[in-house]
Recover the amino acids of this structure.
């Protein structure tokens, strides 16, 4: 598998999702399902750690936007953590860096989102 | 490398093969005097072109042909599919759950291609679509 997702659940309403590998048209349904499952299970504040993501395309961006919309509809939020230079650039050139809250570390994201790790 | 060299690759028009096209293009773009970032840009642009084909193909037996032409001044990559015009776009069943407001990922893909390479030409015909991506070598 080209994509590995490791979710930690510090509380009933929060989740930290560590994503590793390539998020593309083949693997993004897997990420989408994980986000949907967590949201269905009650997660409202989701931190997605992108530090180990080597590739992200428009389908991956679409999944993240969909997840953000869904969580904001229920007064929640999604924060992104640690994207490498290449991945960050994709957010910047599409203007999506202004839509997402992007942090350097999980600790910073958790503090802003009011999550205890 | 004084003349144009051509490399052709044909893949099934399915999600699991898009990564194969990206890998091949990574090798080809590395033959150009591009920076690391420029090579990555070409890889992502080709990935988007293939994804565009895959999303329109659904479960058909379509194929994607990727023709890369390398010369000292430019890299031209033509991504041609044989997905007929008007083919229904494949939509996963749970799209309504997550993409309720209709995230336009095809629009995002087109935007990325426009930004990542110097020229993008899309020719959509009855028997398929060709996306032609051009990246010029630095002066």
């Amino acid at each position: 598998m080209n994509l590995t997702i490791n979710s930690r659940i510090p509380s009933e309403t929060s989740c930290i999702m560590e994503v590793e590998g390539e998020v593309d048209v083949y693997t993004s349904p897997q990420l989408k399902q994980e986000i949907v499952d967590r949201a269905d299970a009650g997660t409202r504040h989701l931190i997605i750690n992108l530090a180990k993501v080597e590739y992200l395309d428009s389908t991956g961006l679409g999944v993240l936007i969909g997840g953000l919309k869904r969580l904001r509809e229920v007064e929640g939020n999604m924060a992104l953590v640690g994207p490498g230079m290449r991945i960050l650039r994709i957010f910047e050139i599409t203007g999506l860096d202004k839509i997402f809250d992007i942090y350097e570390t999980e600790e910073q994201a958790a503090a802003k989102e009011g999550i205890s790790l | 490398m004084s003349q144009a060299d051509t490399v052709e690759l044909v893949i099934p028009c399915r999600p699991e093969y898009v990564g194969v096209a990206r890998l091949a293009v990574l090798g080809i773009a590395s033959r150009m005097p591009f920076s690391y970032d420029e090579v990555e840009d070409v890889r992502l642009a080709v990935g988007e072109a293939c994804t565009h084909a895959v999303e329109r193909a659904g479960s058909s037996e379509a194929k994607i042909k990727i023709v890369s032409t390398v010369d000292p001044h430019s890299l031209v990559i033509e991504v041609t599919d044989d997905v007929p015009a008007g083919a229904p776009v494949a939509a996963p069943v749970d799209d309504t759950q997550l993409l309720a407001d209709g995230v336009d990922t095809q629009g995002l893909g087109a935007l990325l291609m426009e930004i990542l390479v110097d020229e993008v030409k899309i020719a959509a015909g009855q028997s398929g679509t060709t996306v032609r991506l051009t990246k010029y070598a630095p002066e």
Remarks:
- The longest strand of chain B covers residues 128-136.
- Residues 91-101 of chain B have pLDDT under 50 and may be disordered.
- The interface with chain A takes residues 15-16, 18-19, 22, 37, 40, 44, 47-48, 50-51, 54-55, 92, 94, 97-101, 103, 105-106, 108-109, 111-112, 115-116 of chain B (CB under 8 Å).
